[in-house]
Amino acid sequence: MSISISSGFDSGNIRTLSITESTDGAITADLEIVTDHQSDFYQWFHFRVANAAGRAVELRIVNGAGSAYPDGWPGYSARVSEDRENWLLADTSYADGTLTIRLEPDSNALWVAYFAPYSMERHHDLIAWAATQPGVAHRELGLTLDGQPMDLLTIGEGPKQVWLYARQHPGESMAEWWMEGALERLTDEEDAVARLLRQKATIHLVPNMNPDGSRRGHLRTNAAGVNLNREWHEPTAERSPEVLMVRGAMDETGVVFALDVHGDEAIAAVFIAGFDGIPSITEKQSRLYHRYRDTLAIRTPDFQTRLGYPVAAPGRANLSMSTNQVAERFGAVAMTLEMPFKDNDDLPDADFGWSPARSIQLAKDCLAVLAEMIDDI
Question: Looking at the annotation, which residues are catalytic?
């Protein structure tokens, strides 16, 4: 049987350049990642390898040097799965602009991805499940450029308005795994943290800010090739309806605490970025931000404070980014949570690396810290 490499499915992305087979049956395939539509961004890949059971397979992604974050390739391992439930680290190396993945599949269907995918079908299953849980309200904010729904879930009846939103950058699929964990905890009626948060706060969750990019197999942009996390200062229906809808809903409720959930390609750690540099920053905002960050570092060894992004100088914050815009617009304690595509080097997992399970658990830890602070926010 001839080997087949395909990506014509939800979040699929790869282009096959060549496939060669040696006399001993070993296979080498040269591939390239396709750019986001109307954009130069690319780094997300997700494809299926078929008819290769028991054979040595070498997959060479040859355009790594021109990707959005080439510093993300050294030390990175691709994820592979034969059941699309368990995603394991593959033997992966990077040199001279080529990412090489070496496999010997046990079955004739093997999936390969940049990170464990979170499909739009799973997203709809998540919404369907969450919307039927006691005390959860679902609202469709509108439709994206591709005609997909923008889903908002609201939990709780307290006065503190909390917003949790994820996957502005669609290739950062760990962000929606995080959302699954958050919803699991918040809907558990026997969980004391969830009961306290539902009593003290009204929590608004947008599990996927970028359905179009997610389905299209994009790394960073929506159907118009727009990076949504550079649109928060002046979103438009033509370029960034997703941000326009979510920011409009925030304007209706106000925001005291916001967490924008992402993944980082290069830094092998979990970290948080804040809103230093916004024009109206207050001592209370800054104090509560640092309290949240430092408490989370105490609560879970999967979080740290040494590594992260540079801090903006006073008055130099980029207000097109959601964390800065929300902190400035509402006086909120806002932050960006980043999880790795690689692993947490302080606590590595040789089989799974950073994973859906760790993303889910991190969400539950993040909510526990919020519950400790909710009276003061």
Answer: 338
